[in-house]
Amino acid sequence: MSRQFPLNDQAIEIVARRFAVLAEPMRLRLIQALFDGEKNVTELTALTGGTQANISRHLQTLIAAHVLDRRKEGLQVFYRVADPSISKLCGLVCGSLEKTLNQQAAHFDAGR
Amino acid sequence: MSRQFPLNDQAIEIVARRFAVLAEPMRLRLIQALFDGEKNVTELTALTGGTQANISRHLQTLIAAHVLDRRKEGLQVFYRVADPSISKLCGLVCGSLEKTLNQQAAHFDAGR
DNA sequence: ACATTGAATGAGCAAATACGTATATACTTG
DNA sequence: CAAGTATATACGTATTTGCTCATTCAATGT
Predict the structure, then answer these.
(1) What is the mean pLDDT of chain A?
(2) How far apart are the C-alpha atoms of A67 and A1, rounded to whole Å?
(3) CA atoms within 13 A on the CB side of B78
(4) What is the pLDDT of residue A111?
(5) Is the CB of A14 under 7 A from strand D?
(6) How much of chain B exceeds pLDDT 90, in percent?
(7) Residue A62: enclosing H or E segment and its boundaries?
(8) Local structure of residue A91 (DSSP, 8 states)
(9) In chain A, N or C terminus with fewer CB closer than 10 Å?
(10) Which residues 48-107 on chain A approach chain B with CB closer than 8 angstroms?
(11) Alpha helices of chain B — where are they, by DSSP H?
């Protein structure tokens, strides 16, 4: 295991699917809201400002992708981040984007 | 800079866009093909087995996202990976997916 | 059993996107 | 300048996906 690259076609599809799951603003908001601990659907709906139906749908997508876990407690369902790599991924992307933006800013300054 | 989470709405959109760029199998194949050095469009078209038009389109998407850089040499255009975080991202995702799949395999075994 | 509350799902619509075919652009060479 | 080659783009189409509204499902309390 872990020969890493190059990935075969099926592996590529799976990786692409994982990125796709993280490619929606509302889902990123949900994930982010869960970084500091589990929350139920009502809380998440209030925090992210979406409709309950839409939040619920996105949560199912994240569950199917094993990004989140859920726990039922009476009428409520609590969600939490299941995959520890998620925050690392977001951190990496943020760092890289910062760098790119700084470079662009530098070029902008240089063109004064 | 680098306060990291929580991200504001605009930052969320940008991060989502970055993930979206990585969420297409053909684009992942292109990126992967470039991990071992720059290649021109004809080579990439042959390696990935798509039409030239489609490859070219995906390359433009990756350029716009600053994932790749390009270099013209006569009639040919050579592309290379510009962002070093990309291979780290793919590595992280692969590692996490391996783990998930192993867990599923373990549960499957446990249910024997 | 019924009403109430929290969460999930079905149907329909609008927007985004990936693809192929055809065409255009850029550069080189005769 | 004409022809040829490598790459990019325009256009039309099919598929996917995200959203809302309405409804259903699940669990609790009366």
Answers:
(1) 92
(2) 22
(3) 8
(4) 57
(5) no
(6) 78
(7) helix A52-64
(8) H
(9) C
(10) 66, 83, 85, 87-98, 100
(11) 9-21, 25-33, 41-48, 52-64, 85-110
Cα of B41 to nearest chain A Cα, Å: 19
DSSP state of B4: -
**B35-66 per-position pLDDT tens digit:** 999 999 999 999 999 999 999 999 999 999 99
Nearest-by-CA chain B residue for A10: B25
Q: Residue B65, CB, less than 7 Å from strand C?
A: no
Answer whether residue B4 shows pLDDT above 80. Answer: no
Label residue B3 by pLDDT band (50, 70, 90): low
- ipTM comes to 0.92
In angstroms, how far is C9 C1' from A81 CA? Answer: 23
Q: What is the count of residue pairs from A and B with beta carbons less than 8 Å apart?
A: 113
Of A11, A20, A96, the CB nearest to B23: A20
Given this structure, which CATH class describes domain B9-82?
mainly alpha
Q: How many Å lie between the alpha carbon of B49 and the closest alpha carbon of chain A?
A: 12
